[in-house]
Amino acid sequence: MYAWPASEVPALPGQGRDLRIHDTATGGLVTLDPGPVARIYVCGITPYDATHMGHAATYNAFDLVQRVWLDTKRQVHYVQNVTDIDDPLLERAERDDIDWAALAEKETALFREDMTALRMLPPRHYIGAVEAIPGIVPLVERLRDAGAAYELDGDTYFSVESDPDFGKVSGLDAAAMRLLSAERGGDPDRPGKKNPLDPMLWMAARPGEPSWDGGSLGRGRPGWHIECVAIALDHLGMGFDVQGGGSDLAFPHHEMGASHAQVLTGEFPMAKAYVHAGMVALHGEKMSKSKGNLVFVSRLRRDGVDPVGIRLALLAHHYRADWEWTDQVLQDALARLDRWRAAVSRPDGPSAEALVEEIRDALASDLDAPAALAAVDRWVARQDTEGGTDIGAPGIVSRAVDALLGVAL
User: Fold this and answer.
1) 240 burial class (0-12, 13-18, 19+ CB within 10 angstroms)?
2) Among 124, 127, 21, CA closest to 64
3) Is 260 a domain residue?
């Protein structure tokens, strides 16, 4: 599977700061100190109802992580998956009377278009669950052969009790896990499971549903969590720098994935930091596919909204915050974009070297994009009220907000 084209990232004078970011597993800030190549895995979409504003906010957060690392003169090895086979996708295809593979292809193509328009830096490896199946099957077989998985009516389940570190990603107790498992794709009430929390690794073929050769597992399709584990281990290995996604992935997805990987490799942890973006609401409720209360990037673009304005609307909120999308949020962002563009269109202005360092400091401090925007706003206000004589300043500002915030002026 291919990703989308990369927008150019301007080079800036000086060098950025190491990123200090909130780690869900420890509950506090950690300073990331990758080697020359920073490694990040971000969980991708299940390709239906793409790309809604919750998606966009999540991928914007991890785009900032990449930009901070690039500014420290590191390379970035970014991997993202597409869950192009899963129950929700099949259910949507049946509802809309469309072939599931055609639906996945159409929505993935739309997602690529939206990511390109929003100037999100693409992953080096963009991998679909279906194409990862040849690598998934041997992992499930290894877990089974090691006694960490078992069969139940033809399906194969992972035993969470095989991992002594299970629970260290989310920090939740068993009762909270059980509730979230039921809400987020698990089957804690299925009779015969050794532990209600045990997740499925391989689902035996069901009548009328797609299936693949699973070797000794029989025909079927992979569970949700093992998909990301197979892709991450294949392309990044254990102990990569950041596992990212929305806050609703901390449990069960990232918790279960970490346990799968840790049992498979005997190493801990799977990722050095687990970083989660907040949820976006509409009309007082979290945007969700089940509720249908979604704002789509593609629809805004079709209505003539500048994608740079959409990106500024996302950046106006701290990545970990839960917030609400409103028309006013978008109008404020578009007005800010107009002010910024007017300011950098002038032939000179106030010195901008300090502004570049302010943006760097803000982003290095747990991706504080709102503080970075406020710093640019202050420079723009000075440009409006005081003017300046630095003929290079508008160009420096334009390159800085492009390189560090992904905002093209």
Assistant:
1) buried
2) 21
3) yes
Last-in-domain residue among 241, 266, 297:
297
359, 315 in Cβ contact below 8 A?
A: no
Do residues 377 and 279 both lie within one domain? no
Number of domains within the chain: 2
Residue 151 CA to residue 149 CA, distance in Å, equals 7
Residues 281 and 320 in one domain: no
Write out the DSSP string of 22-53: EETTTTEEEE----SEEEEEE----SSSTTBH
Spacing of C-alpha 100 from chain mean position: 23
269: preceding bond cis by omega (within 30 degrees)? yes
Last residue of a domain, one of 297, 326, 358: 297
One domain for residues 125 and 241: yes
Q: What is the pLDDT along the chain (409 residues), one digit of tens a residue?
A: 999 999 999 999 999 999 999 999 999 999 999 999 999 999 999 999 999 999 999 999 999 999 999 999 999 999 999 999 999 999 999 999 999 999 999 999 999 999 999 999 999 999 999 999 999 999 999 999 999 999 999 999 999 999 999 999 999 999 999 999 999 999 999 999 999 999 999 999 999 999 999 999 999 999 999 999 999 999 999 999 999 999 999 999 999 999 999 999 999 999 999 999 999 999 887 777 667 789 999 999 999 999 999 999 999 999 999 999 999 999 999 999 999 999 999 999 999 999 999 999 999 999 999 999 999 999 999 998 888 889 999 999 999 999 999 999 9
> Residue 47's CB: how many other CB atoms inside 10 A?
25
Same domain flag for 250 and 277:
yes
For the chain, the residue count is 409
- 161 lies in the same domain as 188: yes
Does 212 fall in a domain?
yes
Range of the domain at 341: 305-405
Element (H, E) at 77: strand 75-82
Query: Residue holding tokens 């100037």?
Result: 119
> Does residue 267 contact residue 238 with C-beta atoms inside 8 Å?
yes
Q: Which residues pair with 39 in a beta bridge?
A: 77
Query: Rounded to whole angstroms, how far apart are CA atoms 272 and 258?
Result: 11
Q: Which two tokens stand for residue 93?
A: 């295809």
